[in-house]
Amino acid sequence: MKLSLFGQRRRLRRGAQMALVTAAVVGIVILANVLATRHHWRWDLTAQSRFTLSQQTRDVLGGLQNQVDITAFLVAGEETSDQIEVLLKGYEYATDKVKVKTVDPIKQPSLAYKYNIKNNGTILIESGSQQRRIEPYNLFGEGDNPYSPEFRGEQAVTRALMDLSRQSATAVYFLAGHGEKSLDGELSRTNDYLTGEGYTTRRLELPQEGKIPGDAALVVVAGPRKDLTKEEKELLFKYLDGGGKLLALMDPPGSLGIPAGWQELLDRLGVNMAPAVTVDPQRGYFGDALTLAPFLAEHEITEKLAGQDLALVLPGTVPLRVEEGKQNGYQYSPLLRTSDKAWGETNLKENNVKKDDSDLAGPLTLAVAVEKNQPSQKVDVSSSNSDEAGVDNTAAAGRLAVVVGNSAFIGSDMVDMQGNADFFMNAAGWLVGRDNIITIRPKTSEATTVQLTRESAQKIFYGTVILLPMAVLLTGVFVWVRRRSR
Question: How far apart are alpha carbons 231 and 208 in whole angstroms?
Answer without folding.
Answer: 12
